[in-house]
Specification:
- The chain is an all-alpha fold.
- It is 62% helix and 1% strand.
- The protein has one domain.
- The chain has helices at 12-41, 49-59, 73-81, 90-103, 110-129, 131-134, 136-157, 162-186, 199-208, 212-219, 225-234, 242-258, 265-278, 289-312, 339-344; strands at residues 348-350, 353-354.
- The protein has a two-stranded antiparallel sheet.
- α1 runs antiparallel to α7 (136-157).
């Protein structure tokens, strides 16, 4: 007879940390990809200020963009890479992911810890030295590849048990929500005033989801706004479509139920979001009704997120303090910040003047 699984149940705080490690690595990769595509797209536009404002809206989380900062490539890039008041900045995401990984070091493999630590240190070094500005494309590529490598190492070196499930659950839910938010922000500008498709914005939107080549292979026809929206929302085979991501998150949550970890609340909620997207009528994905549909999908996805928190975790909010896991403050060790990084993370009062007092961490 096969041996029974006698592995101990996963602690709530460990599950919480693994879930947010998956989410923050995915968020860092998402922000890096958006910044890379935006930086290229605005070169072909007479005025890219609207695109940079959209970039801020997509990557600011609950942070406020400094009112006295210009909305241009240099300052928006700084905001989404290392601005200390932005919890969704690349450096902030990697900082929280690394500290959560360190707090649950025994629950992840050595290779996985080495990868998240190396990625954090490399990004921090580039921010300290300013290399991320002089070689921005290479820097953003390294962030994306580092996040991809993290998830690949997780699949190849960790047990496919509850721990790995929570990492994948965080990754897929974050990715699905990001795709919905991206469509909500960009979908209304995919058509020119004369009714013709805006091919530049359509192609850029696909590239923001790493889906340009996949779209061309799937349709083998000219790019059309309606098909772009359908592809990113409802394609069942593209791993960044909202349908695929939410469906995979529902499967991961259902796997936790089979293992006896909790009740059916989270996977039922996620399955309802998946059904909402999969069976949406075409008229809901066009015109003025699209914004309402996307808002409903986002609301339902947030309900699924709250259901996950109430079912599996001891709290219902993600950690807000960088580099300090909220579930185990006694485990946090005070880290010294280098003078170079302190200077970079200060909040300027104008584009050329910085405050002498370091920003609160």
């Amino acid at each position: 007879m096969p041996a029974t699984n006698s592995a101990p149940a996963l602690l709530s705080r460990v599950a919480d940390a693994l879930y947010w490690i998956g989410r923050y690595l995915e968020r860092a990769e998402h922000v890096a990809r958006l910044l890379d595509v935006h930086s290229t797209m605005v070169l072909d536009l007479p005025d890219g200020s609207a695109e940079w404002r959209e970039m801020v809206a997509l990557c600011r989380d609950d942070a406020e963009y400094p009112a006295n900062w210009p909305v241009d490539a240099q300052w928006v890039s700084r905001f989404v890479v290392h601005y200390p008041g932005n919890g969704s900045a690349i450096l902030a995401c990697l900082t929280v992911a690394r500290e959560n990984a360190r707090a649950v070091r025994g629950a992840i493999s050595s290779e996985l810890w080495e990868q998240v630590n190396a990625l954090y240190r490399a990004v921090r070094h580039d921010v300290e030295t300013g290399a991320w500005q002089t070689h921005s494309h290479a820097f953003l590529q390294s962030v994306k590849q580092g996040a991809h490598l993290f998830h690949g190492i997780a699949d190849e070196t960790m047990l496919h048990d509850e721990g790995g499930t929570f990492i994948r659950l965080g990754k897929t839910l974050e990715r699905g929500i990001n795709t919905i938010r991206l469509l909500d922000t960009k979908a209304t500008r995919l058509t020119l005033e004369n009714g013709e498709p805006d091919l530049l914005r359509c192609a850029s939107l696909l590239k923001m989801c790493s889906g340009f080549e996949a779209y061309r292979r799937y349709y083998a026809s000219p790019i059309e706004p309606a098909r772009v929206i359908e592809f990113l929302l409802q394609n069942a085979t593209f791993p960044r479509s909202a349908l695929w991501c939410i469906g995979r998150a529902a499967e991961e949550a259902r796997g936790l139920v089979r293992e006896g970890a909790a009740g059916r609340g989270p996977d039922r909620t996620l399955a309802s979001v998946r059904a909402l997207i999969e069976f949406a009528p075409p008229e809901d994905l066009a015109g003025d009704r699209l914004r309402g549909f996307l808002e409903t999908a986002r609301t339902r996805a947030w309900e699924a997120e709250r259901a996950l928190a109430h079912t599996f975790f001891l709290r219902d909010e993600r950690p807000r303090v960088l580099a300090r896991p909220s579930f185990a403050p006694q485990q946090q060790q005070q880290q010294q910040q280098s003078p170079a990084l302190t200077g970079l993370l200060q909040t300027p009062t104008s584009p050329s003047i910085r405050r002498s007092r370091p920003a609160v961490r």
